[in-house]
Design a protein that fits this description.
single chain, mainly beta, Jelly Rolls, 9-stranded antiparallel sheet, 3 helices, about 5% helix
C-alpha cells in the first residue's frame, strides 16, 4: 500500500477474476459482480459486468453467440476492443460493432434481441475482446420506449496528455471537460483508459458517486492499492478523485455514476422495482408484448421477423445470462 494524496479515494475491495463461463456459445466471460455481496446496490447504477478477456476463436461458417431472449427495465452496454459483434432486436433496430465501438441498448418496457459474432468476422475467426455492462434505469423510465445507440469509435470523446502517457476514451459522462456520445437516463461515467508505465491518471468524481475500475491489462497502484491484470477495484466514497499510477503499461475500464436510490427486484433478464412488476414482465413476455424476432441466426441486415417466441426466462435472485 502507498500513501494517498488529500481527496484521493481509497479502495474498499480488490476482486480477482471469479473464473470464466460461457454465455451462449460465443461469449467466454467473467461475471465479476456475482462475487461481490450486494453488488447491485453497492455499484448502482451498474447491475452486471461480464468481461470477455482476449480469446482466439477459430473460423466458423456458423456465427457463435446468444439466441433470442428478452430484457426489461435496464440497459445493456457492449464494448468492443477486438472482434466484431452483430445485434438484432424486435424493434427492427440493430447494427454491427467492431474495435473501439459500443452498443448501448435501452430495453426499457421490453425488447427481444440476439447477438452473435458478425458473420464475415466469424468466417475468418481471430482475437475477441469485449465487455458487457447492465445499467439500471430509474423507475420513471423503466416502462419507456426501447432505444438503440450504435456508437462508433470515431464518435468517442478523447483526452490525451501531450506526452501520450495517458489516453482516455470517453464513452459516457465527462472527463477533463470532454463528453462522451452516449445518451443516459442517469448520471453515468464510462471511460476506456490507457496509462503508460510511469504515467499517472487522475479522475475527478463526485464524492456521492459509486466508482469501480477493471484493470484489463498491466499493473498499477490505484487508490493506494497494488492491482494486477484482471483485478476489479471497488472504491470507497471517501474522496473526489481517483489516481491510477501505472507501474507497467495499463489498460482500464472505469465505471462510475450516481446511485439510483430505489428498490430493485430482479429475475433473470428483468430488473424492475417490485415483485409485482416482475410478474407483469413475465406475463407480458409470454403474451408476446415484447414483439417478435426470428430465431434464426441472422445479421442485423436480415429484417424478416418470425412468429415463434423465445423460451420463458428462468427465475433467479439476480441478473444473469442470457445477455
Amino acid at each position: 500500500m502507498t500513501t494517498r494524496r488529500a481527496g484521493e479515494r481509497s479502495i474498499e475491495g480488490v476482486h480477482a477474476s471469479p473464473g470464466l463461463h460461457w454465455v451462449g456459445d460465443g461469449f467466454r466471460v467473467a461475471g465479476y459482480f456475482s462475487a461481490i455481496p450486494g453488488a447491485m446496490r453497492r455499484l448502482s447504477p451498474f447491475l452486471l459486468l461480464d468481461y470477455h478477456p482476449p480469446y482466439v476463436y477459430s473460423p466458423s461458417d456458423r456465427p457463435r453467440g446468444v439466441g433470442v431472449h428478452p430484457h426489461r427495465g435496464f440497459e445493456t452496454v457492449t464494448l468492443a476492443w477486438e472482434g466484431s459483434v452483430a445485434h438484432h432486436d424486435s424493434t427492427g433496430a440493430g447494427g454491427v460493432i467492431g474495435p473501439g465501438d459500443a452498443q448501448w441498448m435501452t430495453a426499457a418496457s421490453g425488447i427481444l434481441h440476439k447477438e452473435y459474432h458478425e458473420r464475415e468476422w466469424a468466417r475468418g475467426g481471430g482475437r475477441f475482446h469485449m465487455a458487457q455492462l447492465w445499467v439500471n434505469l430509474p423507475r420513471a423510465h423503466k416502462m419507456g420506449p426501447p432505444r438503440y445507440q450504435g456508437l462508433t469509435a470515431a464518435e468517442m470523446g478523447r483526452v490525451e496528455l501531450a506526452d501520450g502517457a495517458v489516453r482516455v476514451r470517453v464513452i459516457a459522462g465527462e472527463h477533463a471537460g470532454v463528453r462522451g456520445p452516449a445518451l443516459t437516463f442517469s448520471d453515468v461515467t464510462l471511460l476506456d483508459a490507457r496509462v503508460r508505465a510511469g504515467g499517472e491518471l487522475t479522475l475527478a468524481v463526485p464524492a456521492s458517486h459509486n466508482l469501480c475500475l477493471l484493470l484489463m491489462s498491466g499493473e498499477a497502484v490505484i487508490g493506494g492499492e497494488r492491482a494486477s491484470e484482471g483485478d476489479l477495484l471497488v472504491t470507497r466514497n471517501d474522496g473526489d478523485q481517483l489516481v491510477v499510477r501505472a507501474t507497467e503499461d495499463a489498460h482500464a475500464l472505469v465505471m462510475g455514476g450516481a446511485p439510483i436510490d430505489e428498490p430493485i427486484a430482479a429475475m433473470g433478464p428483468f430488473v424492475m422495482s417490485t415483485e409485482r412488476e416482475l410478474r407483469e414482465a413475465v406475463a407480458d413476455y409470454e403474451a408476446g408484448r415484447f414483439g417478435h424476432l426470428d430465431l434464426r441466426r441472422a445479421t442485423p441486415r436480415d429484417g424478416r421477423r418470425g412468429r415463434r417466441r423465445a423460451r420463458r426466462p428462468r427465475a433467479s435472485a439476480s441478473p444473469s445470462a442470457p445477455r
